[in-house]
Design goal:
By secondary structure, this protein is α+β, with helices and mostly antiparallel strands. The protein folds into 2 domains: 1-175, Four Helix Bundle (Hemerythrin (Met), subunit A), CATH 1.20.120; 181-258, Thrombin, subunit H (Beta Barrel). The protein is built from 2 helices and 6 strands; from the N terminus they run ααββββββ.
Protein backbone atom coordinates (compact mmCIF):
# COMPACT_ATOMS: atom_id res chain seq x y z
CA UNK A 1 0.00 0.00 0.00
CA UNK A 2 2.84 2.35 0.89
CA UNK A 3 4.38 1.76 -2.50
CA UNK A 4 1.10 2.72 -4.17
CA UNK A 5 0.95 6.00 -2.23
CA UNK A 6 4.58 6.67 -3.04
CA UNK A 7 3.90 6.04 -6.72
CA UNK A 8 0.88 8.32 -6.68
CA UNK A 9 2.94 11.02 -4.92
CA UNK A 10 5.69 10.72 -7.53
CA UNK A 11 3.14 10.98 -10.36
CA UNK A 12 1.56 14.05 -8.73
CA UNK A 13 4.99 15.60 -8.21
CA UNK A 14 5.94 14.99 -11.83
CA UNK A 15 2.60 16.37 -13.02
CA UNK A 16 3.05 19.45 -10.85
CA UNK A 17 6.56 19.98 -12.22
CA UNK A 18 5.37 19.67 -15.82
CA UNK A 19 2.42 21.99 -15.12
CA UNK A 20 4.73 24.51 -13.45
CA UNK A 21 7.11 24.40 -16.40
CA UNK A 22 4.29 24.97 -18.86
CA UNK A 23 2.82 27.74 -16.71
CA UNK A 24 6.21 29.44 -16.42
CA UNK A 25 6.55 29.35 -20.23
CA UNK A 26 3.13 30.95 -20.64
CA UNK A 27 3.97 33.60 -18.03
CA UNK A 28 7.19 34.45 -19.89
CA UNK A 29 5.28 34.65 -23.18
CA UNK A 30 2.69 36.96 -21.61
CA UNK A 31 5.47 39.12 -20.14
CA UNK A 32 7.15 39.32 -23.55
CA UNK A 33 3.86 40.33 -25.18
CA UNK A 34 3.39 42.94 -22.48
CA UNK A 35 6.87 44.33 -23.09
CA UNK A 36 6.19 44.47 -26.84
CA UNK A 37 2.90 46.24 -26.19
CA UNK A 38 4.64 48.78 -23.95
CA UNK A 39 7.34 49.41 -26.62
CA UNK A 40 4.68 49.86 -29.31
CA UNK A 41 2.73 52.16 -27.05
CA UNK A 42 5.80 54.28 -26.30
CA UNK A 43 6.65 54.43 -30.01
CA UNK A 44 3.10 55.42 -30.90
CA UNK A 45 3.08 58.09 -28.20
CA UNK A 46 6.42 59.41 -29.49
CA UNK A 47 5.10 59.56 -33.05
CA UNK A 48 1.95 61.22 -31.77
CA UNK A 49 4.00 63.89 -29.96
CA UNK A 50 6.07 64.52 -33.11
CA UNK A 51 2.89 64.74 -35.20
CA UNK A 52 1.31 67.17 -32.73
CA UNK A 53 4.44 69.31 -32.73
CA UNK A 54 4.52 69.38 -36.51
CA UNK A 55 0.79 70.13 -36.65
CA UNK A 56 1.25 73.04 -34.24
CA UNK A 57 4.16 74.35 -36.33
CA UNK A 58 2.11 74.02 -39.51
CA UNK A 59 -0.77 75.91 -37.90
CA UNK A 60 1.63 78.65 -36.83
CA UNK A 61 3.02 78.81 -40.37
CA UNK A 62 -0.51 79.09 -41.80
CA UNK A 63 -1.37 81.86 -39.32
CA UNK A 64 1.81 83.74 -40.20
CA UNK A 65 1.14 83.32 -43.93
CA UNK A 66 -2.42 84.63 -43.52
CA UNK A 67 -1.15 87.63 -41.57
CA UNK A 68 1.42 88.34 -44.31
CA UNK A 69 -1.28 88.07 -46.99
CA UNK A 70 -3.57 90.44 -45.07
CA UNK A 71 -0.72 92.94 -44.74
CA UNK A 72 -0.02 92.73 -48.46
CA UNK A 73 -3.74 93.22 -49.14
CA UNK A 74 -3.55 96.52 -47.28
CA UNK A 75 -0.40 97.54 -49.17
CA UNK A 76 -1.95 96.65 -52.53
CA UNK A 77 -5.08 98.68 -51.68
CA UNK A 78 -2.99 101.68 -50.60
CA UNK A 79 -0.72 101.54 -53.66
CA UNK A 80 -3.70 101.12 -55.97
CA UNK A 81 -5.10 104.34 -54.50
CA UNK A 82 -1.76 106.06 -55.15
CA UNK A 83 -1.77 104.88 -58.76
CA UNK A 84 -5.34 106.15 -59.22
CA UNK A 85 -4.27 109.55 -57.83
CA UNK A 86 -1.24 109.64 -60.13
CA UNK A 87 -3.41 108.70 -63.09
CA UNK A 88 -5.75 111.62 -62.29
CA UNK A 89 -2.78 113.98 -61.99
CA UNK A 90 -1.56 112.72 -65.36
CA UNK A 91 -4.97 113.40 -66.93
CA UNK A 92 -5.00 116.91 -65.41
CA UNK A 93 -1.45 117.57 -66.72
CA UNK A 94 -2.47 116.41 -70.20
CA UNK A 95 -5.54 118.67 -70.13
CA UNK A 96 -3.38 121.63 -69.06
CA UNK A 97 -0.91 120.82 -71.83
CA UNK A 98 -3.71 120.73 -74.42
CA UNK A 99 -5.06 124.07 -73.13
CA UNK A 100 -1.64 125.69 -73.46
CA UNK A 101 -1.28 124.28 -76.98
CA UNK A 102 -4.61 125.86 -77.93
CA UNK A 103 -3.69 129.16 -76.27
CA UNK A 104 -0.35 129.33 -78.11
CA UNK A 105 -2.07 128.53 -81.43
CA UNK A 106 -4.58 131.34 -80.86
CA UNK A 107 -1.88 133.86 -79.94
CA UNK A 108 0.25 132.87 -82.95
CA UNK A 109 -2.77 133.35 -85.23
CA UNK A 110 -3.53 136.78 -83.72
CA UNK A 111 0.06 137.90 -84.21
CA UNK A 112 0.02 136.68 -87.80
CA UNK A 113 -3.29 138.40 -88.58
CA UNK A 114 -2.28 141.76 -87.05
CA UNK A 115 -1.04 144.13 -89.85
CA UNK A 116 2.47 145.48 -89.52
CA UNK A 117 2.57 149.22 -88.62
CA UNK A 118 3.83 151.66 -91.27
CA UNK A 119 6.42 153.02 -88.87
CA UNK A 120 8.42 150.72 -86.67
CA UNK A 121 6.86 151.79 -83.42
CA UNK A 122 6.50 149.45 -80.49
CA UNK A 123 2.92 148.26 -80.29
CA UNK A 124 1.96 147.60 -76.65
CA UNK A 125 -0.76 145.12 -77.72
CA UNK A 126 1.67 143.11 -79.82
CA UNK A 127 4.28 143.15 -77.06
CA UNK A 128 1.65 141.94 -74.57
CA UNK A 129 0.55 139.12 -76.90
CA UNK A 130 4.18 138.09 -77.43
CA UNK A 131 4.73 138.05 -73.67
CA UNK A 132 1.57 135.97 -73.23
CA UNK A 133 2.77 133.59 -75.93
CA UNK A 134 6.19 133.20 -74.32
CA UNK A 135 4.55 132.61 -70.93
CA UNK A 136 2.15 130.07 -72.45
CA UNK A 137 5.06 128.29 -74.16
CA UNK A 138 6.96 128.11 -70.86
CA UNK A 139 3.85 126.78 -69.10
CA UNK A 140 3.34 124.27 -71.93
CA UNK A 141 6.90 123.00 -71.53
CA UNK A 142 6.33 122.69 -67.78
CA UNK A 143 3.02 120.89 -68.33
CA UNK A 144 4.65 118.45 -70.76
CA UNK A 145 7.46 117.82 -68.29
CA UNK A 146 4.85 117.14 -65.58
CA UNK A 147 3.02 114.80 -67.96
CA UNK A 148 6.21 112.85 -68.67
CA UNK A 149 6.98 112.65 -64.94
CA UNK A 150 3.47 111.40 -64.16
CA UNK A 151 3.73 108.84 -66.99
CA UNK A 152 7.02 107.54 -65.60
CA UNK A 153 5.66 107.32 -62.04
CA UNK A 154 2.53 105.50 -63.18
CA UNK A 155 4.63 102.94 -65.09
CA UNK A 156 6.99 102.45 -62.14
CA UNK A 157 4.11 101.99 -59.71
CA UNK A 158 2.28 99.63 -62.07
CA UNK A 159 5.40 97.45 -62.16
CA UNK A 160 5.88 97.56 -58.39
CA UNK A 161 2.19 96.89 -57.74
CA UNK A 162 2.48 93.83 -59.96
CA UNK A 163 5.42 92.72 -57.81
CA UNK A 164 3.37 93.17 -54.63
CA UNK A 165 0.45 91.23 -56.06
CA UNK A 166 2.78 88.42 -57.17
CA UNK A 167 4.28 88.28 -53.66
CA UNK A 168 0.78 88.16 -52.20
CA UNK A 169 -0.19 85.28 -54.51
CA UNK A 170 3.00 83.44 -53.61
CA UNK A 171 2.26 83.76 -49.89
CA UNK A 172 -1.38 82.73 -50.37
CA UNK A 173 -0.42 79.52 -52.12
CA UNK A 174 2.91 79.00 -50.29
CA UNK A 175 4.32 78.42 -53.76
CA UNK A 176 6.11 75.13 -54.01
CA UNK A 177 6.26 73.92 -57.57
CA UNK A 178 5.10 70.29 -58.00
CA UNK A 179 7.91 67.86 -58.70
CA UNK A 180 10.62 69.93 -56.98
CA UNK A 181 13.36 67.47 -56.08
CA UNK A 182 17.10 67.23 -55.70
CA UNK A 183 19.92 65.43 -53.90
CA UNK A 184 21.56 65.61 -50.50
CA UNK A 185 25.05 67.00 -51.00
CA UNK A 186 26.30 66.75 -47.40
CA UNK A 187 25.10 65.57 -43.97
CA UNK A 188 26.01 66.99 -40.55
CA UNK A 189 24.91 64.33 -38.02
CA UNK A 190 26.15 66.40 -35.07
CA UNK A 191 23.81 69.30 -35.79
CA UNK A 192 21.24 67.10 -37.55
CA UNK A 193 21.02 69.07 -40.82
CA UNK A 194 21.70 68.42 -44.50
CA UNK A 195 22.80 70.47 -47.52
CA UNK A 196 20.54 70.18 -50.58
CA UNK A 197 21.33 70.62 -54.30
CA UNK A 198 18.22 72.77 -54.92
CA UNK A 199 17.23 76.25 -53.85
CA UNK A 200 15.29 79.38 -54.77
CA UNK A 201 15.93 78.92 -58.51
CA UNK A 202 14.12 75.56 -58.46
CA UNK A 203 11.13 77.00 -56.55
CA UNK A 204 12.05 75.82 -53.05
CA UNK A 205 10.63 77.81 -50.11
CA UNK A 206 11.55 78.17 -46.45
CA UNK A 207 9.72 75.67 -44.16
CA UNK A 208 8.99 73.38 -47.14
CA UNK A 209 8.61 69.75 -45.97
CA UNK A 210 10.67 67.30 -48.03
CA UNK A 211 10.85 63.51 -48.07
CA UNK A 212 14.24 61.78 -48.19
CA UNK A 213 13.96 58.90 -50.68
CA UNK A 214 16.15 55.85 -51.19
CA UNK A 215 15.27 53.05 -53.60
CA UNK A 216 11.88 54.65 -54.22
CA UNK A 217 10.94 54.50 -50.52
CA UNK A 218 10.88 57.37 -47.98
CA UNK A 219 13.43 56.98 -45.19
CA UNK A 220 13.18 60.36 -43.44
CA UNK A 221 11.69 63.84 -43.55
CA UNK A 222 13.45 67.22 -43.54
CA UNK A 223 12.28 70.83 -43.32
CA UNK A 224 14.00 73.67 -45.21
CA UNK A 225 15.47 76.37 -42.94
CA UNK A 226 17.68 78.43 -45.26
CA UNK A 227 17.69 78.98 -49.02
CA UNK A 228 20.22 80.25 -51.54
CA UNK A 229 19.91 80.46 -55.32
CA UNK A 230 20.79 76.79 -55.98
CA UNK A 231 21.50 75.44 -52.49
CA UNK A 232 19.49 75.00 -49.30
CA UNK A 233 19.90 73.89 -45.70
CA UNK A 234 17.28 71.59 -44.13
CA UNK A 235 16.88 70.16 -40.63
CA UNK A 236 16.20 66.44 -40.26
CA UNK A 237 12.86 66.17 -38.42
CA UNK A 238 13.42 64.28 -35.12
CA UNK A 239 11.76 60.87 -35.03
CA UNK A 240 11.20 60.77 -38.79
CA UNK A 241 14.26 58.68 -39.75
CA UNK A 242 13.41 55.04 -40.48
CA UNK A 243 14.82 52.67 -37.87
CA UNK A 244 18.13 51.12 -38.86
CA UNK A 245 19.04 53.65 -41.59
CA UNK A 246 20.81 57.00 -41.71
CA UNK A 247 20.49 59.88 -44.14
CA UNK A 248 23.44 59.85 -46.56
CA UNK A 249 24.82 62.14 -49.31
CA UNK A 250 23.29 61.14 -52.62
CA UNK A 251 19.85 60.40 -51.17
CA UNK A 252 17.06 62.01 -53.16
CA UNK A 253 14.78 64.65 -51.64
CA UNK A 254 11.34 65.41 -53.03
CA UNK A 255 8.67 67.92 -52.05
CA UNK A 256 6.30 66.08 -49.73
CA UNK A 257 3.23 67.35 -51.56
CA UNK A 258 4.30 65.48 -54.70
CA UNK A 259 5.46 62.15 -53.22
CA UNK A 260 3.15 60.22 -55.54
CA UNK A 261 4.70 61.82 -58.60
CA UNK A 262 7.84 60.73 -60.40
CA UNK A 263 10.12 63.68 -59.73
CA UNK A 264 12.86 65.00 -61.93
CA UNK A 265 16.06 65.66 -60.02
CA UNK A 266 17.21 69.22 -60.70
CA UNK A 267 20.99 69.41 -60.45
CA UNK A 268 22.70 72.84 -60.49
CA UNK A 269 25.30 73.45 -63.20
CA UNK A 270 27.80 75.28 -60.99
CA UNK A 271 28.04 76.90 -57.53
CA UNK A 272 26.53 80.35 -57.29
CA UNK A 273 26.66 83.16 -54.78
CA UNK A 274 24.11 83.28 -51.96
CA UNK A 275 20.84 85.15 -52.36
CA UNK A 276 18.08 85.95 -49.85
CA UNK A 277 15.25 83.52 -49.19
CA UNK A 278 12.64 85.83 -50.72
CA UNK A 279 13.22 88.86 -52.98
CA UNK A 280 12.99 92.22 -51.17
CA UNK A 281 9.58 93.82 -51.38
CA UNK A 282 9.35 96.83 -53.73
CA UNK A 283 8.79 100.31 -52.29
CA UNK A 284 6.34 102.24 -54.42
CA UNK A 285 7.09 105.82 -55.47
CA UNK A 286 5.10 108.24 -53.42
Amino acid sequence: MAKIFIGIALVLTLFTAVLGFLTKGKIEAVKEEKRDAIVKKDKAEGESRVAKTELKKAQEDVTAAKAAVDEKDKEVTAKTGQIDALTKQLADAKTASDDKDTQITDLTKKLSDKPAPAIAVADPAVAEMKAQKEKAEAELAEAKQLEETMNRKVKENDSKLAGLEQYKRDREHQLQRPGVSGRILAVNPGWNFVVLSIGDRQGLMTNSPLLVMRGGEPIARVRVTSIETSRAIADVIPGSVREGVTVQPGDRVVYEGSRNETPHVAEPAAPVSPSPTLPPLPTLTQ
